[in-house]
Specification:
Blueprint: H1 2-8, H2 10-16, E1 28-34, E2 41-44, E3 55-63, E4 66-72, E5 78-84, E6 89-95, H3 103-106, E7 107-111, E8 121-127, H4 135-149
Antiparallel strand pairs: 1-8, 2-7, 3-6, 3-8, 4-5, 4-7
Bound molecules: 2-oxoglutaric acid.
The site of 2-oxoglutaric acid has 11 residues, from strand 1, strand 3, strand 7 and strand 8.
Length: about 170
């Protein structure tokens, strides 16, 4: 699996970019699909609460080339904008254990919509996080949410009712 490959080569990858090593594995992946040039993800910082300290998140670009943007935290001053092709990797320091701000907290990133028509594109983002939810819980939660969206109540055991009794006239 791709995440295993990244973990196996983690130290070498980070060292090749002159980055300090990360002690923990990447253990979380999100796949995002942008159908065309209109699909976009706004400027944001990733939430730091659950990141392993001193870890990085890695974005691997897929499909059609798309602009990738970093701005200052106000979102007004662009620091970086480049059309990135499939296979490009972006590595961002997620959070620091010494209380100083990491790159993710100092700048925002995003994938803006494009003027030119583009085909489908996307990304896989690997993160190293503290809370890992087991797959069976993910499936159960997904099923419950789908039922809720469909307007159904989750299947419950039938409520216990007292047995019906007939009145018998007493003579
Ligand atoms: O799809 C991308 O290139 C970026 C994804 C992203 O910003 C995110 O998942 O936080």
């Amino acid at each position: 699996m791709l995440m295993e490959w990244f973990n196996r080569h983690r130290d070498a990858l980070l060292a090749s970019m002159g980055l300090a090593p990360q002690a923990t594995d990447w253990n979380h992946a999100i796949v995002t699909r942008y159908e065309d040039e209109n699909d976009n993800i706004g400027l944001h910082n990733d939430k730091t609460r659950d990141f392993e300290p001193d870890s990085y998140f890695v974005v691997v670009k897929l499909g059609a080339s798309r602009d990738f943007v970093f701005t200052d935290n106000s979102g007004e001053r662009e620091i970086f904008r480049e059309l990135l092709s499939a296979g490009t990797m972006i590595v961002v320091r997620a959070c620091n254990s010494d209380g100083s701000k990491a790159a993710n907290e100092l700048v925002k990133h995003g994938v803006p919509s494009m003027r030119e028509a583009t085909g489908p594109s996307g990304s896989i983002v690997f993160r190293s996080i503290k809370t890992v939810v087991p797959w069976n819980r993910v499936h159960e939660e997904t099923r419950k949410r789908a039922e809720k969206r469909a307007g159904k109540r989750p299947a419950k055991r039938p409520a216990k009712r007292p047995a019906k009794r007939k009145r018998v006239a007493q003579s």
